[in-house]
Description:
Layout: H1 2-9, E1 18-23, H2 27-36, E2 40-45, H3 52-55, E3 60-61, E4 77-81, H4 87-94, H5 117-120
Amino acid sequence: xxxxxxxxxxxxxxxxxxxxxxxxxxxxxxxxxxxxxxxxxxxxxxxxxxxxxxxxxxxxxxxxxxxxxxxxxxxxxxxxxxxxxxxxxxxxxxxxxxxxxxxxxxxxxxxxxxxxxxxxxx
Length: 122
Ligand SMILES: [Zn+2]
């Protein structure tokens, strides 16, 4: 809700936008998301206790198949899980925090991240 109100205070329209949130919205925030004209919400963590879908089933969907954005004539805001690198893993995945070259030889010392081996190379 704070980002919607902050946008309003700064005169930035949320209509037709995509909102990234940490947790599936509660029913109260969902109501504001729908009213603000946001097209899509991507969340990282589910929130099973949320009543958003039950209370706003006419204006929210989790089904992306055949979905059309409200700003393009559709009638439901799409809530779906975020696909990508979460903020917690972003730093490890994309920031070059380690030494990349051997100072003496100049050879690249890039190796696969220790955390990826269990998923990709197992
Ligand atoms: Zn909320």
